[in-house]
Amino acid sequence: MFYIMLIVGALSVLMAALIFGFMYVEKDFTLLNVVKTIGALLFGVFLLVITLPSLKYILLKEYDVVSGDCTIEIISSGRSTESTFEMLDTGDWFTFNHIPALDAYGESIPYHCEVTVTKDHKFEISYKIYDVNSRELILTSE
User: Fold this and answer.
1) Considering only CA atoms, which of 114, 127, 109, 116 is closest in space to residue 72?
2) Partners of 78 in the beta sheet?
3) Is 82 left (phi over 0), alpha (psi -120 to 50) or beta?
4) How far is Cα 69 from Cα 111, in angstroms, rounded to an integer?
5) How does pLDDT run along the chain (142 residues), one tens digit per residue?
6) pTM of the prediction?
7) Is 84 in contact with 73 (CB distance < 8 Å)?
């Protein structure tokens, strides 16, 4: 997801700059074209502001591992499903775009989780789920 956001942001900024260039050369400044181009520029800059600070952590593979007891919630809406890991010790939330193949989910089913995230804790990389009592590995995303 990180790379998709980075690429879409860069392409939006480049396309907005090209369209502004063509509008300047042809002197064709209609209100609709200006609004669409400014919107694309702002959207691209927004995506780049979100992703660029974490780029060095992704490229240099500088990750933190957050571990502790957690609960896993499944969120389904339409065609998209995602799983949210809530770390009970720290209160952190981490979201993944796929559902782990576990027998039970919810607040009443605790697990011990190790979630690998970037150093700034903005992007999730992987997870490992352990049994809360025996610390036996149940599932990994790798």
Assistant:
1) 109
2) none
3) beta
4) 6
5) 788 999 999 999 999 999 999 888 888 888 888 999 999 999 999 999 999 988 888 888 889 999 988 888 887 777 778 888 888 888 888 888 877 777 777 667 888 999 999 888 888 889 998 888 888 888 888 7
6) 0.72
7) yes
CA distance 72 to 132: 13
- CA 46 vs CA 49, 52, 115: distances in Å: 5, 10, 26
Closest-CA residue to 55 (of 142, 122, 126, 141): 122
